[in-house]
Structures are given as structure tokens and as C-alpha cells.
Amino acid sequence: MSAACIFLRVVIVAVFACSLKDVAALTKPSSVQLKDNGYSGVVVAIHPDVEENGTVIEIIKNMFTEASSVLFNATRSRSYFKNVTILVPDTWADNDTYDSPKNASFEGADVIIATRNPRFAPDPYQQAAPYTKHYEGCGRQAAHIHFTPEFLLDPEPTYGSLGRLLVHEWGHYRWGLFDEYPDVIGDPDFYQEYYFDPETNLFEATR
Ligand SMILES: *[C@@H]1O[C@H](CO)[C@@H](O)[C@H](O)[C@H]1NC(C)=O
Ligand SMILES: *[C@@H]1O[C@H](CO)[C@@H](O)[C@H](O)[C@H]1NC(C)=O
Ligand SMILES: *[C@@H]1O[C@H](CO)[C@@H](O)[C@H](O)[C@H]1NC(C)=O
Ligand SMILES: *[C@@H]1O[C@H](CO)[C@@H](O)[C@H](O)[C@H]1NC(C)=O
Ligand SMILES: *[C@@H]1O[C@H](CO)[C@@H](O)[C@H](O)[C@H]1NC(C)=O
Fold first, then answer.
1. Which of 14, 172, 179, 187 supports an S-S bond with 191, CB 3.0-4.6 Å?
2. Sheet containing 38-40: which strands, arranged edge to edge?
């Protein structure tokens, strides 16, 4: 497949009757599929408490478009994002360009845009960093990726390119990868500053 095959279709849908149940179900259905190298059925849902701002939608589109190219390069042409559905809450104005949500829901979303979660962003004076809620560890899909709207709207993103950042989070989400650095906030019980290699008896970087 050549890079010219990378095509990302973004469909924006709106929820009319929004039922918000507990998002943190342990095993969660997801419609993501990998077929012919393309990830399809990815759902990004905006929480009803997020203030209406069309720029958020534009940024999500651009982030996935860039991430598709980053993923394609990083996996040596093995995968890219084929289509993404953005679920707009019923607290936002309706728009003729929006489709019906079919069975997409906030609870089932792969990526959520919502206000800060104090569990992962305890300091209210610091910008909430994106995170991926893990449950089952390596090789298993996580619950969801969380971005705050403030993080997405920041004109100078803290961690640089949003597309690269999304691919990093996608590694946690889809493949259950762990961070290659110690995460004091997300993993307070098990984080390690260094890795002690019992064979060489040397401390090395966390991996
Ligand atoms: C939504 O419906 C499609 C087609 O019926 C199905 O393949 C998919 O798994 C469903 N998604 C969820 C999150 O239930
Ligand atoms: C995404 O692509 C899959 C696989 O080609 C297709 O079944 C699905 O209908 C597409 N979804 C949207 C929202 O375009
Ligand atoms: C959307 O967010 C941007 C960046 O924070 C801001 O400049 C703009 O005024 C907001 N637009 C609306 C309609 O609130
Ligand atoms: C992916 O690789 C192509 C070809 O080398 C390059 O043009 C493109 O900028 C790369 N994309 C990213 C996001 O790095
Ligand atoms: C509907 O959405 C489009 C594309 O995001 C935007 O350009 C347009 O201003 C929106 N229309 C209304 C009435 O909000």
C-alpha cells in the first residue's frame, strides 16, 4: 500500500437523547476494527458538559488525520485510521451536516473529550494531560483515551504534535502498552523510576 491510500473519513453525528451511565465499565464494547490495514469504527465522543465550540471538532479531525500518517509511518505501512465518528452532545446546537448517531454512544466511545478527571489530573492549576485508562494490561484493549477540551484548544500543545501524541495514547488503548517512562500519577503503586537489570546488575531506563 502506498501513502496515497491513506484516506480518513470523518463523520460527525449528534446525540439527541443522551443517557450518561457509568463510563467505567470493566469490559466495554468497542466497534473498532482493523481491516485491510485500516482502523475503522473509531468513536470520539464529546461530553455534554463541554462548552460548545466548533474548533474542538476541527482539532479532532486534524489530530486523527495527522495521527493516521504517523501511525502509517511508524508501523511501516501496516496501519492507518480509515474512519472516525465524532459524537456531538445534545447540549450543542444542531447542524444540518450532522448524521444520526446509530449505535455510537458516549459509554462505548474509544476517545472521550471531557472535563478533567481528578484521579488523573489532581492539580487544578496544572493543565490536565491526556491519559488512557488501562484495565487489563499488555496486549488488551483499554477503556478509553481522555482529552480535556482545554488541552485540545491550547494553541501551543504541551507535548507537541497532537497526531503523535494520539498514536502514543493509541498504543496504550489498542495494544495495552505501558509507558516507557515512570508515571507517578497514573500508576502510583507500581511505577519504577529505574529498571534494575538482574543480569547485568545495573540500573537502566524504565522500559
Ligand atoms: C454498532 O453496530 C455495528 C453494525 O451493526 C456493529 O458492527 C458494531 O459492533 C456496533 N458498535 C457497538 C459499539 O456496539
Ligand atoms: C468505516 O469503514 C468501515 C469498513 O470499511 C465501514 O464498514 C463503516 O461503515 C465505515 N463507517 C463510517 C462511519 O464511515
Ligand atoms: C473556541 O475556543 C477557542 C480557543 O480557546 C476560542 O478562541 C474561541 O473563542 C472559542 N469559540 C467559541 C465559539 O467559544
Ligand atoms: C510519513 O512519511 C512520509 C514519507 O517519508 C513523509 O512525507 C510524512 O511527512 C511522514 N508523516 C509524518 C506524520 O511524519
Ligand atoms: C455546521 O457545521 C459546519 C461544519 O463544522 C460549520 O461550518 C457551520 O457553521 C455549522 N452551522 C451551524 C448553523 O452551526
1. 187
2. 33-35, 38-40, 80-81
